[in-house]
UniProtKB/TrEMBL annotation:
Pfam families: DUF1501 (PF07394). Residues 1-29 form the signal peptide. InterPro entries: DUF1501 (IPR010869). It comes from Andreprevotia lacus DSM 23236. This is Uncharacterized conserved protein, DUF1501 family. The keyword Signal applies. Keywords: Signal.
């Protein structure tokens, strides 16, 4: 390969995010048609959030017996739960989400998760992102397969990942845009330097495919940077919040309102609370607070577009029903999925909940998985994104179970 072709090929790969410069990568897509207005945002809580304290069964006496030091107090007590339905309560750190619950735009599916029994973070996250539990050889992520099935014209910003690298869930044959989180999202990359930009532009004179690919990636990069410029200018005048999710949520809302972003993904870490987890206050509460704030800000910033948006919050598995000797919890099985949005049939905790009696626990230690996480996602794809059964089978191959009915309004 000659030097010029090598440089052009490398720059084209840069445009697809395979060789990202700085903190952002940009990708290409194809398939013309008219876009749909329905949006899906997936938030992944990496590290296995403790769903039993996020949505706690405070009416089950076993909850307090199993967790004498970390159970969140009942509604009405200091730092107590926010009552949801007389049985379950929401962690007080998620108070910003209470208006969405009251507006019936927030729901939960308890005892949900992967049918694969692994307690490995790496494997469980891989399965949840590939959408094929127990199969490590899947080449792409389920959100990329979803993107490939959606009607409408494909563009480099139809799917966006917020974070330093392209995640497994969006990997595949359809290109997506990768945007850095926090203040780094608006920082110029190497290609934004005039001399570097001019040098690469000289390589791309002509009409060959590499030249066209580079130019399209360059325009996509400019489009996203321009959309974020005003937000970044304001944010640079002050320090960001300890957890950057609220900032990222507002940035994402801005991209969604100004552009054609239909699918978005963001991952948040820090949920592996083996030690000093806390109850109504403490480590878990400190992690949850910016999540609640960010989701509330996302809903507000989207404005009328919120009615056409569904947000799914999920984690690779839950945690043990019983606290450990270090004031924390260990790797478990079943967890709680969150659903938010204008189309969500909210104000309800869904799922086949069997209680915390020892006989009801999986391996006498964990909440069992009674709802496959893929069934929840499939219902969102079917009822919100309007995909037929044949396409659902492509996105989630091997899925044979269903989620509780009515999660999404028709």
């Amino acid at each position: 390969m000659d030097r010029r072709l090598f440089l052009k090929s490398s720059a084209a790969l840069l445009g697809t995010g395979l060789f990202p410069f700085g903190q952002s990568g940009w990708a290409l897509a194809a398939n013309p048609a008219s876009p749909t207005q329905k949006k899906l945002v997936v938030v992944m809580l990496r590290g296995a959030v403790d769903g039993l304290n996020v949505v706690a069964p405070y009416a089950d006496a076993n909850y307090y017996a199993l967790r004498p030091g970390i159970a969140v107090a009942k509604p009405g007590a200091a730092d107590g739960l926010l009552d949801l339905d007389g049985y379950f309560g929401l962690h007080p750190a998620l108070t910003p989400l209470q208006p969405l619950w009251q507006a019936k735009q927030l729901a939960f599916v308890h005892a949900a998760g992967s049918p694969d029994a692994t307690r490995s973070h790496f494997d469980a996250q891989d399965y949840m992102e590939s959408g094929t539990p127990g199969r490590k050889g899947t080449a792409d992520g389920w959100m990329n397969r979803l993107l490939a099935t959606l009607p409408g014209e494909m563009s480099p910003t139809r799917a966006v990942s917020i974070g330093p690298t392209l995640p497994r869930i969006l990997s595949g044959r359809i290109g997506v845009a990768n945007v850095a989180s926090g203040n780094a999202a608006g920082k110029p990359t190497v290609l934004d330097r005039p001399k570097v930009d001019d040098a690469f532009s000289q390589l791309y004179k002509g009409d060959d495919k590499l030249a066209q690919a580079y130019e399209e990636a360059r325009e996509t990069h400019k489009e996203v940077m321009d959309s974020l410029a005003d937000e970044m200018m304001a944010a640079s005048n002050g320090a960001p919040l300890p957890n950057g999710f609220p900032t990222d949520a507002v940035q994402l809302a801005k991209l969604m309102r100004k552009g054609n972003v239909q699918l978005a993904f963001i991952a948040l870490g820090g949920w592996d609370t083996h030690i000093n987890q806390g109850a109504g206050k403490g480590q878990l509460a400190n992690r949850l607070a910016p999540v609640g704030e960010g989701l509330a800000q996302l809903a507000q910033a989207l404005g009328p577009m919120w009615n056409d948006t569904t947000v799914v919050v999920m984690s690779e598995f839950g945690r043990t029903a019983k606290q450990n000797g270090n004031g924390g919890t260990d790797h478990g099985h079943g967890n709680v999925m969150w659903l938010l949005g204008g189309a969500v049939a909210g104000g309800k905790v869904y799922g086949d909940w069997r209680g915390l009696d020892n006989a009801a626990l999986y391996e006498q230690r964990d909440v069992p998985v009674t709802t496959d996480f893929r069934a929840v996602l499939a219902q969102v794809a079917e009822r919100h994104l309007r995909l037929p059964d044949a396409q659902l089978a492509q996105i989630f191959p091997g899925l044979t179970t269903t989620a509780p009915r009515g999660l999404i309004r028709a």
